[in-house]
Amino acid sequence: MTKRKTSSWSVHLTFGLFVLMFLALAGRFIYIQVTGEVQGFNLQVWADNQRTNHVNIASKRGSIYDRNGMELAQDIAVYKLYAVISESYSPNPDRQLNHVADIENTAKALAPLLEMEEQEVQQVLEDGKEDDRFQVEFGRNGTELSRETKLAIEALELPGINFIEQAKRYYPNGIFASQVIGLAQANDDSQIAGITGIEAQLDNVLSGTDGSISFQRDKYNTRLLDAKEVITEKHDGYNINLTLDQKVQTILEDAMSYVDEQYSPERVTATVIDPKTGEILAMSNRPSYDPNQLGDVTNWYNDIVSTPIEPGSTMKSFTIAAAIEEGVYNPNETYQSGTYKIDRIDRPIPDYRRHWGEITYAEGFQRSSNVAMSKLVWEKIGTDRFLDYLKAFHFDQPTGIDLPREQAGTILYRYPIEQLTSSFGQGTTVTPIQMIQAATAIANDGKMMKPYVIDRVTDPNTGEIIEQKEPEIVGQPISKETADQVRSAMESVVTEEVGTAHNVYQLDSYSVAGKTGTAQISGGASGYLQGDENYIFSFLGMAPSDDPKLLMYVTVQQPTLQENESGSAPVSYIFNHVMENALHYLNIQPDKEQEETVNRLEMPNWKENATAQVTNELEEKDFKPIVIGDGDKIVAANVEEGEAVLSTQQLILVTNQPSMPDLSGWSLRNVIEFSNLLQLNLEVIGSGYLTEQSIEPGTVIDNGPYLLVEFAAREIAD
C-alpha cells in the first residue's frame, strides 16, 4: 500500500510539472507572437532584414570647371583587382572555372600588368590558398587600375580574376593650378574627400549624397510580387565654375615650368587678375605638384595667399600714391639722392647706388630710390598719415579671398626706422594676394576690388545656379586722378632710360605700367641673407597702361643666375610671355603704334569646307595648322570661325577621316584641345611635353577611343 501511494504521488508530481512546463512554453509562444520580441530583439525587423535586398546608389562628386566650362577636376572610374582562389566558387570545374586553378600561369600573366615580380604575385595567391581564404587582393599594385590596364587583363581571360569599379578624383591638366584647385582622395570609407585647396574649402558643396534601393525577396533570392520597394534618390555634389581661364592658366604654367627648369628658384609665384572685377584668371606657384602623380611633394601651400614676404620696391607705387593723394608730390622737385639720415635712426637710409646726385622725385621713382620714398613719408606725408594709407590699401588685413589658409602680412611700424623702411617695402610684410588687391585700386581708377576665384556653384541635378559671385569693391584709397598719375609714373619706369624696368618689361603690342622689386630675405647674420642671388625679385605690372585690362604680380625667390645676369631675367620672362599672349587671346586691342611681331588673322570659315582650301588660306598668311587625317573636308577645329588667332597659337584642323598624329613634343594644352575635338577618353601621366602615346600614329580614330599620354619635362641645354 505504501509503495502504491508513493507511485501515485510521483505520477501526480510529474504530471503537474509537465503541465507547468507546457503552460510556461505556451505562454512564452503567445507572448512572442503578440509582441514579436525575444529578449528585446525584434523578430519582425530581423525577418524583414533577412528577406530585404539593399543596393547602394553611389553619388558623384561635383566637378570643378574653368570659366569657360573646361573640366579641371572630375571623378573617373578606376578598378581594384581581386582573385577568387576558393574551389567552392567553381561547382562544375569541368564546364567552367571561376577560381584561380593555375597559380603559376596566372602569376606569370598578371605580374607585368601589375608592375610586380612574378614571384610576388604567386606568393599572394599561394598564401591565400594555404589560409583557406575565399579571395585575395594585391595591395597598392592591384588598386586604382586604369581602364586600359583592366581591358588588358580581361583580354587574358584568366579564371578567377575579377574587378571592383571605384571612383577616383582625376585632374585632366595635371600640375595646372594644383595649389588652387587642391587635392581630393578616397578616405578609409572609400569616399572621396577634399584635402587641400578648393577641394577642401568646398568639400561639403562638392560631396554628394548616396541613394539606395531596397526590396523584399524570398529565400531563393527571387523578388516578391509585393516587394515593398523603397527608393532613396542619390544627389550628386554641386559643380563649381572658377574664374580661372584654362588658356591663360596654361600659358602661365608653361612659363613657370620654363623658369623653374632654367633657374631652379626656391619659390615662384604669379597671378593674373582682371583689375576691373577682381576675377583671378590665372594663379600658379613653384614648387607645385601633379595631383595625379603626387610623388615627393615639397610645398602643399598656395604661397600667394599663405606666405607673407617683404615686397621690396614694388611698395613704392603705394608710397607715391599716398603722396599724390595728399597733394604733396611734385615730380619735378629735386632732392639729394644717396643716403638719408634723421636724428631718430642710428644708420642712414641708403640708395642701392649712391652716385645719382641731385635728381627729381620722378627720376627717383624711376630709379627706385629708397631716399626719395623716405623723404616723402618723413617730410611730406607724415608717418601717421602714411600709416592710414597702408591701412586704406588693406595691408593690415587679409583680403578674404575664397581660398583656404590665407595669412595676412604685418605692418612693422613701431619705430622711426620701421616707418621709413615700410615706405620702400622692407620690414613690413604682405602676401602676394594683398599686393594684388591693393594694386587693383591703381589699375581701376581708385576702386579696390576684392580678388576671387569661385565664379558660381551649380546643382547638376537641376541645372540651378546655387550661388553666383559678383565683383565687390572693398575700398577706394585713392581718387581716379591719383590712380592716373600713379600709372603714368609706373609707365615711366618701363619707358624711361633710367627706369629699372627699361628694355626689360616691354611688350611688343601693349604699353606697360609697372614697378620692379628686389627684396632682401630675412635670415642672415646681419638680419638678411647676403649674396647676389639671395633676394626675392618681383614685378607688379599692368597693361595697357592707360586702361589696364590685366594686372600681374610675379615673384621669383633666389634663382640661380648666370654671370652678369640680373634677377629680372626670370621675372620678366614670365610677365612678358604671359601678359602679351593673354592680352591677345582676350582680344584686347593693342595700343602700340608699331608693326606687330605676332601675326593675327580672323579664323576663316572651315565648317565642311575643303581641306585644301582652308589650309591654303591659312598658309598664305604664314599660319601652319596641324591637319588630323586625310579627309577632304574639315569637320572640327580648335578655333571657331571669326575668332581672332595669333601666329603663336597652334591651329588644329580635323578632317572627315581622322587618324592619330604623332603627338611627340606637344604641350598639354594642345593635347587636351586635340582630345576634346576627337572626343577621346584621355588619361594624362606626368607634366611638361609629351613623350609617349598609347595609340600609334596613323591609327584610324573612331568612336572616341581611350588615349593614355605620358609627359616629361623638357631638357634644358647646358
Layout of secondary structure:
Layout (H helix, E strand, L loop, with lengths): L1 H34 L1 E2 L2 E2 H8 L1 E6 L6 E2 L5 E14 L18 H12 L3 H13 L4 E3 L9 H8 L6 E10 L7 H4 L1 E4 L5 E5 H5 L1 H4 L4 E6 L13 E3 L6 E4 L3 H18 L3 E8 L4 E8 L16 H4 L9 H11 L7 E3 L2 E2 L8 E2 L7 E3 H7 L2 H12 L1 H10 L23 H6 L10 H12 L4 E2 L4 E5 L6 E4 L4 E3 L4 H16 L17 E8 L14 E9 L6 E8 L10 H18 L14 E3 L8 H9 L6 E3 L5 E4 L6 E3 L5 E4 L12 H11 L2 E5 L3 E5 L12 E7 L6
Helix pairs in contact: 3-4, 9-18, 11-13, 11-17, 12-17
Q: Architecture of the largest domain in CATH?
A: 3-Layer(aba) Sandwich
Strand content: 15-25%
Rg over CA atoms: 35 Å
Uncertain spans, ≥5 residues at pLDDT below 50?
713-718
CATH homology superfamily of the largest domain: DD-peptidase/beta-lactamase superfamily
CATH class of the largest domain: Alpha Beta
The number of distinct β-strands equals 33
Work out the count of structural domains: 4
Query: How would you characterize the largest beta sheet?
Result: 7 strands, mixed
Tally the helices: 20
Helix content: 25-40%
- The CATH topology of the largest domain: Beta-lactamase
Structural class by SSE content = alpha+beta
- Ends apart, CA distance between termini: 126 Å
Shape estimate = globular
How confident is the prediction overall: mean pLDDT? 87
EC number: 3.4.16.4
Domain PASTA: 597-657
InterPro entries: Beta-lactam/transpept, Beta-lactam/transpept-like, PASTA_dom, PBP_dimer, PBP_dimer_sf, PCN-bd_Tpept
Main location: membrane
